[in-house]
């Protein structure tokens, strides 16, 4: 495979390999992108410059100058005579616009004719929604593909800025990170805190699931009686947990008129690393009184999952066959079906058809 080519699910659909394309990926919090600043990210194994011009325009380009391969993110914004802002490479000052076209090569002299506009770096469509920044990754390696749909919108983004933000890198392909976080049966073993649950509190559960846009949801229900953390919200909480490809999982809790939205964004850094960003919004007063304790609990959960991923890697390095069982692993099966259908629909140029059927799943946890 040539250097720089992104391995996609179109060419390799094996679980734990490749990535979905022609889809939005969460890249950053909007608050992280300050005016006049550039930042280097890696998404799907590709270097991506993310920045916000002094005028507030978002920009996303391949973070490699085509001249000598210096990272453009190490440069700065430059204001052209036209007023447009370009990204200036730190090595030789080559400048590129938000469309990826080269705007100037300062080393050229007057009689050296060259159409610099024909030189381009890959441009990534980028959008800001609900305080989140998404990058559209096209299957076209030249970056010509445009978004066919707006970025995701989530319910329950209330109370202004997020109450909690936590980040962690899992040393795992995004497939393993996704199914690990959506797995309903690991809680009593991986997350054994007195304020949550224990292996002794296991009992049979039955939850109803429905297809949702590019994913599925555990429809709104009362939290399980052995999930003690919900008690801090008081009242009679109801929760709904939704998953959407390529790696977005959110829990929307309502307590009367109060809301809590816990959004987990999984962004593939490369084949062996996935960035997990946990974001919580709420207008519930518990987040004013108990925020330090809630934040500590959320961090503990995420790090326990990360530790289990590292433990799992000891077995995965031998590339074993994985045994999936119903109903506890049905969500993992749906995830694979969703990926296959997304890839097929894009390849065949037809609308996506959600393969998930309504079902009631039963398991012990």
TrEMBL record:
Domain Rieske: 25-135
Assigned keywords, A-Z: 2Fe-2S, Dioxygenase, Iron, Iron-sulfur, Metal-binding, Oxidoreductase
InterPro entries membership: Cholesterol_7-desaturase, Rieske_2Fe-2S, Rieske_2Fe-2S_sf, VanA_C_cat
A GO term for molecular function: dioxygenase activity
Superkingdom: Bacteria
PANTHER family in alphabetical order: 3-KETOSTEROID-9-ALPHA-MONOOXYGENASE, OXYGENASE COMPONENT, IRON-SULFUR DOMAIN CONTAINING PROTEIN
Protein name per the record: Aromatic ring-hydroxylating dioxygenase subunit alpha
UniProt organism field: Phenylobacterium hankyongense
């Amino acid at each position: 495979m040539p250097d720089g080519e992104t391995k996609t699910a179109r060419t390799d659909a094996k679980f734990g390999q490749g990535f979905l394309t022609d889809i939005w990926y969460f890249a950053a919090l909007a608050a992280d992108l300050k005016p006049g600043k550039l930042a280097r990210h890696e998404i799907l194994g590709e270097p991506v410059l993310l920045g916000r011009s002094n005028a507030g325009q978002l920009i996303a380009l391949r973070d490699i100058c085509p001249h000598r391969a210096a990272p453009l993110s190490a440069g700065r914004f430059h204001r052209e005579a036209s007023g447009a802002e370009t990204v200036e490479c730190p090595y030789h000052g080559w400048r590129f616009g938000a469309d990826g076209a080269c705007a100037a090569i300062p080393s050229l002299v007057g009689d050296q004719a060259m159409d610099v506009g024909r030189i381009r770096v890959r441009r990534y469509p980028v959008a800001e929604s609900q305080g989140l920044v998404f990058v559209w990754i096209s299957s076209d390696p030249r970056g010509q593909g445009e978004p066919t749909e707006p970025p995701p919108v989530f319910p329950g983004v209330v109370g202004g800025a997020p109450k909690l933000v936590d980040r962690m890198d899992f040393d795992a392909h995004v497939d393993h990170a996704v199914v690990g976080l959506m797995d309903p049966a690991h809680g009593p073993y991986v997350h054994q805190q007195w304020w949550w649950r224990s292996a002794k509190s296991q009992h049979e559960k039955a939850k109803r699931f429905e297809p949702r846009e590019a994913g599925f949801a555990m429809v709104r229900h009362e939290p399980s009686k052995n999930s003690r953390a919900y008690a801090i919200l008081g009242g009679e909480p109801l929760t709904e947990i939704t998953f959407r490809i390529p790696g977005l999982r959110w829990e929307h809790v309502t307590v009367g008129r109060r809301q809590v939205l816990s959004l987990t964004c999984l962004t593939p850094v490369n084949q062996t690393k996935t960035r997990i960003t946990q974001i919580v919004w709420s207008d519930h007063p518990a987040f004013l009184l108990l925020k330090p304790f809630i934040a500590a609990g959320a961090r503990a959960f995420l790090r326990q999952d990360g530790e289990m991923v590292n433990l799992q890697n000891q077995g995965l390095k031998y590339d074993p066959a994985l045994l999936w069982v119903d109903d506890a692993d049905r969500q993992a099966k749906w995830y694979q079906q969703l990926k296959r259908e997304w890839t097929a629909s894009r390849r065949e140029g037809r609308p996506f058809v959600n393969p998930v059927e309504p079902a009631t799943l039963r398991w012990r946890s």
